Structure formats: C-alpha cells, structure tokens
Amino acid sequence: MFYYILALFVLGLDQVTKWMIVKNMHFGESITVIENVFYITSHRNRGAAFGILQNQMWFFIIITIAVIFAVIYYMQKHAKHQPLLRLALGLVLGGATGNFLDRIIRKEVVDFLDVKIGSYNYPIFNVADSALVIGVILIFIQTLMESKSKKENMNGAHRS
Questions:
Q1: CA spacing 20 to 30 A to 105: which of 45, 50, 97, 149?
Q2: Phi-psi region for residue 154, left (φ > 0), alpha (ψ -120 to 50) or beta?
Q3: 129 counts as catalytic
Q4: Strands 120-121 and 30-34, how do they pair?
Q5: CA 149, CA 112: separation in Å to the nearest integer?
Q6: Residue 102 in 3-state DSSP?
Q7: Residue 36 three-state SS
C-alpha cells in the first residue's frame, strides 16, 4: 500500500507544481533561484527526455500505459518484501503517471526545473522526471544488491 501512497504523493506534487507554472508564468519566463545554477523556467516538451521524439504523442501514451501496468504488476508480484524496490517502483509509478496526465490533458509535458552547471545547461525537467530518475537509480541499486547477495549465497553454498 505504501508505494501507491507514494505514487499519489508524487503525482499530486507534480501536478500542483505544473499547474502553478502554467497559471503564474508565461511560456519562456524564467525566475532566478540561485544565480548561474538554478532557475524556474516555464517550458513545454512534446517529446521525451532531452526533447527527443518530438510530437510522437501516441507512442508515449502507449509506452506509458505499458510501463504503468508493468510497474503495478511487479509491485504486486515481486516487491512486497523489498522496501527499496517498493520505494523505487512508487516513484516510477508516480512520475510516469504525472507526465502521462500532461500528455493526455495538455498534449505536452510542462517542465520548469532549470539547472545550469558552468557552461552546461541541463535539459529543463519537472517533479515527475525527478521521481522517474530517482526511481530508476534505486532499481539499479536494488539489482546490484540482489546480484551481490546471490553471489555471496552461491559462494557460501560451494564452500559447504
């Protein structure tokens, strides 16, 4: 149940922040939070991460539906006794659903978190994107931990 509550929290935070941007900022408008590092910039994306596959809305809708069903299935079948995996899948579910709603309702994804590091300007993103990235990183960590545990168990079994 925890991962569904987390997914709803991420979805709510994502949609509220996007609504605030749409209602209070003009497209392209930017607010400095930390000079030369972090800005709130009203931006729209009709593609995927880094703006790839622009205007491929049906592709993203189909893929996202598949991802949402796969995450829910995996949560029910495999994540019940794995807290890190539950956390990761909750983040992925909330993030995927947040951007999915944008694509369905707005026909584009609202982005606004704008990070600049030196001369590099990272692609503008949103709360859903952040949750997706963190969730995928946690899934990767969980996979590494499981792999290490299996190796240790196999080595221990060979020594007996």
A1: 50
A2: alpha
A3: yes
A4: unpaired
A5: 40
A6: helix
A7: coil
pTM for this predicted structure:
0.86
Residue extents of the structural domains in the chain: 1-150
Q: How far is CA 106 from the centre of its chain?
A: 18
In angstroms, the CA 132 to CA 96 distance is: 7
Share of the chain above pLDDT 70, in %: 91
d(CA 115, CA 130): 12
Q: Which of 14, 102, 111, 114 is catalytic?
A: 111
Q: What is the number of alpha carbons within 13 Å of residue 130 lying toward its C-beta?
A: 14
The model's pLDDT over 58-117, given as tens digits with 9 standing for 90+, comes to 787 888 899 999 999 988 888 778 889 999 999 999 999 999 999 999 989 999 999 999
**Can you tell me the distance from the alpha carbon of 132 to that of 138, in angstroms, rounded to the nearest whole number?**
10
Beta-carbon count within 10 A of 122 CB: 11
Q: pLDDT band for position 30 (50/70/90)?
A: very high
Tell me which long-range contacts 22-25 makes (C-beta under 8 A, separation of at least 24).
Answer: 22/110, 25/112
37: nearest Cα among 141, 142, 160, 121: 121
Q: Which candidate in 14, 102, 114, 129 is catalytic? A: 129
Instruction: Indicate the average pLDDT of the chain.
Output: 89
Q: What is the pLDDT of residue 146?
A: 84
